[in-house]
Amino acid sequence: MIQEFKKIWKGYALGMLWLLGLLWPLLGIHPDGTLSFEKTLTVWLYIFVGTAICLFLYLLNKSGALELVTDPVATFRKNVLGLSKQMPSWVWLVVVLVLALLFPVFTTRYAQDVAVNVLIYICLGLGLNIVVGLAGMLDLGYIAFYGIGAYSYALLNIHYGLSFWVCLPLAAFMSCIAGCIIGYPTLRMRGDYLAIVTLAFGEIVRLILNNWMTLTNGPNGILGIKVPGIFYPSFFNGFSMEHLWLKKLHYLYYVALMLAIVTIISVYRLNYSRIGRAWESIREDETAAELMGVNTFLLKLLAYAMGAVFAGLAGAFFASRMRFVSPESFTFLESAMVLCMVVLVGMGSIPGIILGAAALIVLPELFRGFELYRMLAFGAAMVVMMLFRPSGLIPAKRVGTRSEEREN
Amino acid sequence: MATVLETNMEYFLQQLINGLTLGGLYALIALGYTMVYGVIQLINFAHGEFFAAGGYVGVILLGFFTGLGYMETHPILCLGGAFILTMAYCAFLAVGVEKVAYKPLRKQSRLAALLSALGMSIFLSNGLMLTQGVFDKPYPGEYFEGGFEYGAITVSYLQIMILAMTIVLLIVLNILVFKTRMGMAMRATAQDKTMAALVAIGSNKIISYTFAIGAGLAGAAGIMVGLYYGSVRYDMGFVPGIKAFAAAVLGGIGNITGAMLGGLIIGMVEIFGAGYISGQYKDVFAFIILIAVLYFKPTGIMGQNIDDTRV
Fold this sequence. Notes:
- The complex is a heterodimer of chains A (408) and B (311).
- Chain A has 408 residues and is mainly α.
- Chain A has helices at residues 2-28, 38-63, 67-86, 89-106, 109-134, 143-160, 164-186, 191-211, 213-216, 249-271, 274-284, 286-291, 296-322, 332-344, 350-366, 374-388, 403-407; strands at residues 222-223, 229-234, 240-245, 324-325.
- Chain A folds into 2 domains: 2-82, no CATH class; 112-407, no CATH class.
- In chain A, helix 4 packs antiparallel against helix 10 and helix 6 packs parallel to helix 8 (191-211).
């Protein structure tokens, strides 16, 4: 144990020296021909103290010195989990649903805004999960479909005045077509090549949106997109159907909630369907799946198209909510963000993705004061997460049991 | 008619020179990708950031030398010193990044390593932004102005320097990889890690060495891009990084000669596409080439002979 800790501290010290060596040329060499050390040392000391405390706590926990604190927490967690298992799952679903429905009543505009964002990213994460988590194809250009959905609605609305509800399936359809077009040539590839080609496609879509001035108005984006409207029956002055633009944020929240629920239900159903099992078999071993009679090409294309459909829905809603679209919103960083939601908390598990989306949107909002350091922390968290929990916080459970597990 | 043809010809030659310059730069970056991929089968997403870091350290050092006043008296010496120090810095950075973010994940799934690389890339580019600011940082370019002119064709001193530097670096790399014992060990590790370990080649050392060489080349490319375009930006590593990866794939990933060839082709395609078709879509051409190559010939141009030239 002591030996092991010694090794860890030695590695840590070397790493910190390395960091000092990296920081000094960036912070300590000035264009007026002078050298300085104070700023480098201050920055370095902050990082050093912060990481040293984290590492110390981690090692204490590992060696069991923190059992006084962690033991009660663990028992408490176990008890709560036991309780939650005893209750039928529909109770939980009802509780969550009621809380989600009542959310705008008790919260401020700001919280609703964040919640709408979370819901959009839940749709995106679950859509990407079909491609990455179920079918096992790494997609780094997923945000392109989101962009295509958003621009479909924006253009149809601006030029033809079509309403949100008409455009929603149309946007999904357009994204689906794009998914097939992009999927068809790429699906012959596997692994890293697939990742890089999807990345290239994502960039191509963004560049086209950015440069096709006559259609998309280029980097200036499209302004004046209409929000969704609904007809509702009015009994004032006899019976008539009244039209209402859902401009208020809490109305939009309900639209987003509806989209998210539709997505969750469909992904859940897909997950446990024949198609879902076929996707999982492709993920585990493509050759074996093909031998068992799974039409791998068609199913991979379907996974791509299904993933794109949900991104298209989310995109159309995004355009209607912002009332503005521009290529700025569909950069590679967004793709990376959605991928993180799928992978960091638990690849393939629906609650994991919902938690991941919530965490990745809400945490940066909580640390708004440190906005500059947001992406830095995001990158570091990604690396640290992969180092300590390479399969995510809550790894996905397999459907059914494997034969070797059943024997035990 | 003759004059039109002549101007067309001149235009073509000018584009050819520009394409060669850019292609050489892409080749330098692509080499890092291809060598790392050859040894540990990882797309090193952070490689573009090594390149950006090189650009920044270069501008810092050149600024420092200007401040000291050496730039006016010995510009060549200062430039050489900046190149060497920057390459050393990038090598130092890359070796550390590999130890921190990739080495512990060698036994894990490819996805974990790829995501770690992605996280590292985001981390490094934001680290650069925080320490150096969000705005473009101008390069001291006044010492390298001017050039030769043949009619309408201009070859700037900078372009000549970049081409010469690229050729020198490529020759040095070839010697390192194909003529030294270390290079032989590298090629052995790339071919078969277990077998190499059995004949007492330490794979950790070889991997560090590979990262150092690749990042050194990327750092040199960073300074040259800074000098060529006149400024650097914290996020400048991303797009050239992807294009260089495209070049590496085009040449057949893992193949050094292929990466050089691929870099030249991508640079040419970009310049000629911008010159003859559309300047706005110049980035698209490189990506389309990448997709077409992967679709029709996934092994790349030189991917077949993976026996000897592979690293």
